[in-house]
Known about the structure:
By secondary structure, this protein is mainly beta. It has helices at 53-56, 160-166, and strands at 27-36, 59-61, 67-78, 90-95, 100-109, 124-128, 137-141, 149-157, 170-180, 185-194, 200-210, 215-225. Among the domains are: 27-78, no CATH class; 81-113 and 149-228, Immunoglobulin-like (Sandwich).
Amino acid sequence: DLTGTRLAPKEKLDIPVLFMPDTMKMYEAVVIIHVMRENGENWPYEDSTALDKDLESRVTVRENSGIHGICWIYPVHGIPEAPQQKFIPAVVCCQAKQRVERRVEVLLTGVVPGANAMPAARNSATVNTNKPANIQEELQVTDGFSTTVEFLYEIQYQSNEIKSQLGALIGMQLIQREWDTESGTVTLIFSVVFAPNKPIRNEATLIVQCTTGGVWKFPMLFIATKPEVDDVINIEAVGLNKESIVGFKLTSQTR
Length: 255
């Protein structure tokens, strides 16, 4: 018999859930909460046959049409995250009003191909400083895996304001993946496009998630230097205390 917890009317109950993964795969569990009256009596319910399907699956009804217990079921998904390390950020640098493309390579360790779990390990990344996407993309990796493994990725910015500024200036696409059967590591190679319109310097995080479970995070740094001078306007003086005028056109980049 399970030992119950007594709750006063409108009292709150905190239920701690401890998660200690040993492999980089998703774990699933359910938290079941069953409540009954302390005196063992039922809650009166006149027409038990009229219970809707959703409520019927969560209550225990006795023959006398009383509700003996109510049950809540909360599914829990445990997604391991690789230990954070002090990586040197992948730096993408470009002069403002120009466009640059860089290759960024990340190494995922502990990827679980299907049910064959491998021990969780530290992640690492190397950067080889070369289309647009800060939107999540997915890739099916089938070479060497017993089952199909998909990867989701996105660039996470420090705030929504920075995201609104950089979202349209940065693109990312997964162009190549390799799986080392001996070490059990997966290498993902991204193509990062950066087309800044003004000088900036912002940090970001590349987040990679495997659908079999596991999250890896890699720091990035985007730097835009000062742009070239657009044009030089020369105004010739016609004399002292006299105005000289030069006309030129400006074209708006937006509506």
